[in-house]
Amino acid sequence: MSYRDTYAAWQADPEGFWMEAARKIDWDQPPSRAFFDQGPAGEWFADGMVNACWNAVDRHVEAGRGDQLAIIHDSPITRSYRGVTYRELRDRVASLAGALRAKGVGKGDRVIIYMPMVPEALEAMLACSRIGAIHSVVFGGFAAHELAVRIDDCTAKAIIAASCGLEPGRVVHYKPLLDRAIEEAKHKPEFCVILQREQEVAKLTPGRDHDWHSFQYGVEPAECVPVEGNHPHYILYTSGTTGQPKGVVRHTAGHIVALNWTMKNIYGIDAGEVFWAASDVGWVVGHSYICYGPLLAGATTIVFEGKPVGTPDPGIFGRIIQNHRVKVFFTAPTAIRAVKREDPDCTYIRDYNLKSLKAVFLAGERADPATVQWVERHLDVPVIDHWWQTETGWPIAANPFGIETLPVKHGSPGVPMPGYDVQVLDEGGQPVPRGTLGAVTVKLPLPPGTLPTLWNAEERFRKAYLTTFPGYYETGDAGYIDEDGYLYIMARTDDVINVAGHRLSTGAMEEVLAAHPAVAECAVIGVTDSLKGQAPLGLLCLKKGTDMPNAQVVAEVVGMVRDRIGPVAAFRTACVVDRLPKTRSGKILRATMVKIADGEAFKTPATIDDPAILDEIAMALRAAGYPPSVA
Ligand code: COA
Ligand code: AMP
C-alpha cells in the first residue's frame, strides 16, 4: 500500500485502522473497540488489558529471540561497550521489578528515574511498566530544583538514580543533586535506589538509599501485571510557558500500539534489525525510540553515552553505525551541524563502512535545508526530517520510509501520518488557504499514544491545548501546508524555545532572573544560534539605585539559571537595558526583540507603547554583539 492509500484507509475507518494495528500487540484481554469518547480529549483501547513490558521484552524471548541483543550500550566517554540480550533484559527487569514490589511499589505508584545513558535506565523504566508503576524520567541536565518540582508534582513514592552521569571532561554528580532535590521537595519519597557507577561511588543515606544490587538480592522476580489500556504508563514533564512544567501523561495501550505501528511503517524497522536514536532517555525521543519503540518491534536499540563531536572526534556516528550495523539512525539537526562544523567534508564518518545504513531521521527542531543536504551529499541515504512533540509521543508528520519514500522537500518535515488530521488555522479558527502561515492544529481526536491529559492538571490541559481552537489540538507551532500537502513548521507561537534540540521555557528562565535582588524586570528571548538553532538571551532592567556593576549582575543571573534550571538551559549571557518594549496593555514585545537581535527586518507593532524603546534595545544589543554580523 502507498502512503496515500494508507492515509485514506485511516480516514475512511479510523476504528478499523487502529484495531488492525492493535492486533500486533499481545493482550491479556483484547479491547472491545479502539476509541473511547471519555476524558477531556478521548482515550484509546480503554477496556483492553495489557502490559507494556511484556510486549517490549518477554514476548520476544517467548518467540525465540532470547539470545538476540535487545540493548547495546556504547560509551565512547568510558571507552566501554556492553550488550544485553532479550533474555538477560527480561531477567534483570523482572528482578528489579520484584525488588520494587517487595518495597511496596505497585500499580499506579509514581517512580522518578534520574539516570544517564546506561542500560539500567531502560531497565528501570521497564521494571516500572512491568508492575504497573508509573515512571517519570527526569533528564540528567536538569538541576536539583527542577527535580524537586517533579517530585512534588507527581508525589513520587521512590526514586531510581545513578551515582553520576558523564559529560565530556566532567562528572555530573547526581547524588548531591538528588539529596538537594529531596530536601527542597515538600513531598518525600519513601526510598531511593542508587546505581553505583565505577566513575563515582556515592555516599548512601542510611535508611533511605539502597544500592541497586543489594536491593535486588534474594527477592522474588516479578511477573508482568496486566493493566487497563488507559492506565498511565508514564509521565514526562516538558516545558510550558511558566516555570511549572507540564506533566504529559501517556496511556499504556495507545502508546504501545502506535509506537509499534511507527517502527515498521515510518522507520522501516523489523525484528532483529538495529535502530539508533542518539538522544537521551530524559526526552520523549528517548522514551519512544531508545526504549519502547525498538523493543516493541523486537529490534536492537543503542544506548549511546557520548556526543557527536569530541568523544573522541566527529567520526563517532560512523563508528557506531559500522560496528553495530545500524539500519536507521535518528538524531537532531544540531548534532549534524556540530559534526559539519568540525569536519566540513565528513571525512571522519565516511571513513567507516556505512553499508548497513538505510535512512537518517532528524527531529527535535527545524531541519534547515543546508544541514539536510549536507547529510544527503555525504551519506547517500534518504534524510528524513519529521515533526512531533513530547505531547504526541510519535511523529505527526514524516516521510513514511517504511511504507514508501516520498520525494523529499527540503525545509518540510513531510506529510501527516495516519491518525493526524493536520489543519492550519487563522486567529479566528478558520482554515487558511494552502501556502498561508497560521497556527498548526490537529483535528480531534488525537490518535492513540498521544497525551490524554496532563498529570493532575486537567484544566491546564484544556486551557493549553483545547481552548483556543475548539475541536482542535493546538500544537503551539506555526506553519503552513503547501499545494502537495507537505507541512512546513516555521516557529513556536508561545514562549518555548528550542536550544540544541532541547525544549526550554523562557518563562521559567525569567522567573529565575526576576529572583535576583538587583533585577526589576526582565525578559528572555531565543536568538538564532548557528549551532544550536536557538540560544537564550536575557534582557535585564535593574532596580533604581542598584550599585552592583552590570557585569556582576549578569554573571550572577547566569549562575542562578545554571543552578536552578540546569546546565541544559545553556543560558550564558544577558544584557542590561533601561526599559523593555511593551504593548499598551503591558505585554513585553519579545518577538520584536528577537528580530532586532537576529538583524531581521521588522515592523514596529501598532500596539507598542513607546516606539523609541526599540532603538534603545537595538543599541544595547549591538553593544552586546547582536546581531553577530554587525558586531
Ligand atoms: N547531563 C548533565 N549535563 C548535561 C547533559 C546531561 N545529560 N546534557 C547536556 N548537559 C550539559 C552540557 O554538558 C553542557 O554543560 P556546560 O555548560 O558545562 O558545557 C550544557 O548542558 C549544555 O549542553 P548542550 O546544549 O547539549 O551543549 P554542548 O555544547 O554540550 O553540546 C551539541 C552541543 C550540539 C554537541 C549537543 O547539544 C548535542 O549533541 N545536541 C543534540 C541534541 C539532541 O540529540 N537532542 C535530543 C532531541 S531529539
Ligand atoms: P519536544 O516536545 O521537546 O519534542 O519539542 C517539540 C517542539 O520542537 C515542536 O513543537 C517544535 O516546535 C519543535 N520541533 C520538533 N521537531 C521539529 C521539526 N522536525 N521541525 C520543526 N520543529 C520541530
Description:
Residues 3-56 form the Acetyl-coenzyme A synthetase N-terminal domain. Belongs to the ATP-dependent AMP-binding enzyme family. This is Propionyl-CoA synthetase. Residues 509-587 form the AMP-binding enzyme C-terminal domain. InterPro entries: ACAS_N, AMP-bd_C, AMP-bd_C_sf, AMP-binding_CS, AMP-dep_synth/lig_dom, ANL_N_sf. The structure is a single chain. This protein has two domains: 3-306 and 386-479, 3-Layer(aba) Sandwich (Rossmann fold), CATH 3.40.50.12780; 500-630, ANL, C-terminal domain (GMP Synthetase, Chain A, domain 3), CATH 3.30.300. The chain is of the alpha/beta class. It is 32% helix and 23% strand. It contains 19 helices and 31 strands. Helix 3 (52-65) packs antiparallel against helix 4 (86-102), helix 3 (52-65) crosses helix 5 (119-131) and helix 3 (52-65) runs parallel beside helix 10. A seven-stranded mixed β-sheet has the order 5-4-17-16-18-19-20, sandwiched between helices. The mean pLDDT is 97. The radius of gyration is 24 Å and the shape is globular. The structure holds coenzyme A (COA) and adenosine monophosphate. Adenosine monophosphate binds next to strand 25 and strand 26. Residues 140-141, 165, 167, 172, 278-280, 283, 285, 307-309, 331-332, 334-335, 338, 363-364, 499-502, 532, 567-568, 570 line the site of coenzyme A.
